[in-house]
User: What shape does this take?
Amino acid sequence: MNHDDPKLTAYALDELDPAERAEIEQMLAANPDARAEIEHTRSFAEKLRSELRAEVAEALNDEQRELVLSEKSGSVLPAPALAERPFWRRSGVISAIAASIVAAQPGRRFSRRRSGTGRVRWQLALSPQVRSLR
Amino acid sequence: MAPAHPPDLLPALLARFERPLVRYAVSIVGDLDAARDVVQETFIRFTQRGSSGAGEAEGADPDSVAPWLFTVCRNRALDVRRKQSRIIYMDQTLDRTSDEPGPAAQLESTETLGSLLRLLGELPENQREVIRLKFQNDLSYKEIAEVTQLSVTNVGFLLHTGLKKLRALVEAAPRDEWPIRQTV
Assistant: This one.
């Protein structure tokens, strides 16, 4: 019997239909190595299940949950579809701006210019990423 | 097509699936805020599709809706990831667990989980995903096939191969880096 058989794993995880299960059990009766392999798979699967379920699982924030529940009650609160979000709220943009500003600090320079009206303007030397967002 | 559901099922669905779906979406998009948006949209789609369906089943089991929720969540998360054009797995989940045992037990549990997730990260993405769906979210082979649009046979092969590789990685890991190895 081939121990490297997906059917043995499916048996260990109780995923076979009754007919397949009976077939495997018949083979297992005369194969202690295969039985040991199945026990090993079950033991590992249990540990894996236990560990993975301990991984942190965050919830929606209150505003999002309220929005979902208001959809249920037929409220007309607008759903902020991802594609419709303003560009500055999209994932990555805020961090790109922040990173660009931080990156600009060591080499920060200000240039003093006179506008046509005579008022002084300060211009921060921005990184290319920030300039592209302007 | 969204499964039929009674109108008051939504709070139970939120209670049952909100956190697992956010965790699953984070594993795909790698960003908590984006994952929350994905899950919010998943539930909104559920309410919109479900309320328009005829013959809503009274007393529907929230677990029967799981494949639909995970499927919509996955598709939307993959869309978001394509738009982001980047794959980041949430390393910040490695240093926290959802349980609050005593400090010593918590430290050991956190180290174990962190080591496990690092080893899991060494598997191909399709194997990681079916392992998460099976062992973290308790979906059957058939339900995983529905979510991932693979055949049941293919899901069985990926789980078999993924478990085998993960077990080999655990057995090869230094004993003090992964306490669970002592009991596997």
About this structure: The helical segments of chain A are 6-12, 18-28, 32-52, 62-72, 93-104, 128-133. The mean pLDDT of chain A is 71.
